[in-house]
Design a protein that fits this description.
By secondary structure, the chain is α+β, with helices and mostly antiparallel strands. It is built from 17 helices and 18 strands. The strands form four sheets. It has a six-stranded antiparallel sheet with strand order 8-7-6-11-10-9. It has a five-stranded parallel sheet with strand order 2-1-3-4-5. The longest helix has 47 residues.
């Protein structure tokens, strides 16, 4: 991966530049002195410098860069005036991402041409010979120290930073390198970065980023063996080894996957690492790779469990699970609130600790495998209404691993529905009472009037005849009102039978005619007879009453 040094004290400008540098190892500096110190440690290819500052400062900086790193290219951001002649490339202060990428592409092309020209002028390299180094086996004391250190690594395996630090310390006691670094991929696997080191400058640790798709990382993943500098002919791989200040890079492979890279600098004593040392390093790296893979898997499972627990804790429904052992495995926060139980007291206990019939439903689903979809139940304890669903959890062979119960508290909804029904019934009762009062009031007014006049006009035969008809009619209306009241409050049985609707209508017409003749009011009913019988299944008496009430209501409320 190519290296770039961003030199600016402006945080916003640094963030704008960094958005276009995802394919680079980025090193940062806020002042010229910091940048020059980084150049002495790292082989930088491109320098992006903010041109704001006193006059001549850019020219002075470029001159210093040429002395330290002649091949580094300087790109000025927003430069103007005489400083234009001192830099290699420029971009305006209001640059776009496309403009910056184009300048960086031209700079990298120039770098590549320079390297190819230098390589063509160089003499043909001598044949590469394998590095053998010291072939003497390990002494017992070194192996004992190594085993003690690696045992500590396994003991601290859950704490990854501590385990990796102990591993590097063990390697340091074994082979005595000048520098060590261990690189691991980021969370998305887009780049490898240094996670623990010994002897590297902070600028290197913060800035180095290696792509897994090319260069050293790809070579290690494909070859599956250590990369030793004297044996490597690819200049890109050599450049990345030099960037890490290493002469050896050992892959940490687990099940064919590159999980980390161990980079070692020159040994303190001797020119190279021996054959036994390389073999031991490769074996230890393989063991550590397995440990790292298991740790990563453990952390992934822990995060997945934590994520599931967070989902369960924020669900609006209660969730209860049991396993094959018929013990409660999960009781989420909402289930605790609804059932008034504590998860600490319930989880791990027998399912009989749950209120009936929840435990029975879970057991039935576990043993039979039959799910139960959205059934309403009422708990004997606290008289709670719940809407419950259950389903079984099965393994790859279809055998039940446990069962899950999901429920919602319907008690508030039931109470609200009950209150709504009571309000509706009260409104109905109010309307019925008002109607009955009106039905009773009208005939009582006429009867009361005649009672007051009867003493004065009793000898008048017309008055007595009219009095008899009106009182008889209004008394009958009062009787009908009380019959209606009795019908409302009496839970009588309906005697349904199949009858001819024509007969019911004929009987109704006869009754209506007789009643209206006695009342002295003329009614005209037009009935269209049907030739064929019209059979219906009804209670004939109640049907006649209903039709009679309807006709009389229309009669009394229609114009005379």
């Amino acid at each position: 991966m190519n290296t770039v040094l961003v030199l600016t004290a402006d945080d916003k400008l640094r963030a704008r530049l960094a958005r276009s540098l995802s394919a680079f190892s980025i090193f940062e500096a806020r002042a010229d002195g910091d940048a020059l110190r980084t150049l002495r440690l790292v082989e930088i290819e491109i320098i992006l410098r903010d041109s704001t500052g006193p006059a001549g400062a850019l020219t002075t900086f470029v001159t210093a860069v040429r002395e330290i790193s002649p091949h580094a290219l300087v790109v000025a951001v927003g430069t103007s005036g005489e400083d234009l002649d001192t830099v290699d490339f420029t971009v305006p202060a209001s640059f776009t991402a496309r403009e910056l990428e184009a300048v960086l592409r031209h700079a990298l092309d120039r770098q590549r041409l320079v390297r190819e020209l230098a390589a063509s002028r160089a003499a043909a390299p001598a044949a590469v010979t394998p590095v053998t180094g010291n072939g003497e086996p390990w002494d017992g004391v070194a192996v004992a120290r190594l085993l003690r250190g690696f045992t500590g690594v396994l003991a601290a395996s859950v704490d990854v930073p501590r385990a990796l630090g102990m591993f590097l310390d063990s390697i340091g006691e074994l082979v005595r390198p000048t520098r060590m670094a261990l690189l691991r991929p980021d969370a998305l696997g887009h780049e490898f970065r240094i996670v623990v080191n010994r002897g590297l400058a902070p600028q290197l640790v913060q800035g180095i980023r290696l792509s897994p798709n090319d260069g050293l990382i790809r070579w290690l993943a494909v070859q599956g063996r250590p990369a030793v500098a004297p044996e490597i002919v690819d200049p890109e791989i050599l450049r990345e080894l030099k960037l890490l200040q290493a002469v050896v890079a050992v892959p940490l492979l687990a099940h064919g996957e590159l999980v980390a890279v161990l980079a070692l600098g020159q040994p303190v004593f001797g020119a190279t690492y021996g054959r036994y040392e390389m073999q031991t390093l490769f074996d230890l790296a393989a063991h550590l790779a397995t440990v790292l893979r298991d740790i990563t898997l453990h952390h992934q499972l822990a995060r997945a469990k934590e994520f599931s627990e967070r989902i369960l804790s924020h669900m609006s429904s209660g969730v209860v699970t049991i396993g094959r052992d018929q013990k409660v495995g999960t009781l989420n926060r909402r289930a605790e609130e609804i059932l008034d139980l504590s998860a600490e007291a319930v989880v791990g206990q027998d399912l009989r600790v749950l209120p009936s019939p929840l435990g029975d439903m879970l057991y039935d689903t576990l043993t039979s495998g039959r799910p139960s979809a959205r059934s309403e139940i009422q708990l004997a304890l606290r008289r709670l209404w719940l809407e419950v669903s259950t389903y079984a959890v099965r393994d790859e062979e279809g055998e039940p691993l446990g069962s899950v119960l999901v429920f919602e508290d319907l008690t508030a909804q039931k109470e609200l529905a009950s209150q709504r029904r009571e309000a509706e019934q009260f409104q109905l009762l109010t309307r019925v009472v008002a109607r009955i009062a009106d039905e009773i009031k009208n005939p009582l007014v006429s009867i009361n009037t005649f009672i007051e006049l009867i003493a004065e006009r009793y000898d008048d035969p017309d008055f007595r005849r009219h009095f008899s008809m009106v009182v008889r009619r209004d008394v009958r209306r009062l009787v009908e009102v009380f019959e209606k009241l009795a019908g409302l409050v009496t839970e009588g049985e309906l005697n349904s039978s199949i009858v001819d609707a024509r007969e019911v209508v004929d009987q109704l017409v006869d009754a209506i005619d007789l009643a209206d003749e006695a009342a002295g009011k003329h009614l005209e009913l037009d009935v269209v007879p049907e030739a064929a019988p019209q059979f219906v299944k009804v209670d004939a008496v109640q049907l006649r009453k209903a039709l009679a009430y309807l006709i009389r209501y229309l009669t009394h409320n229609s114009p005379t």
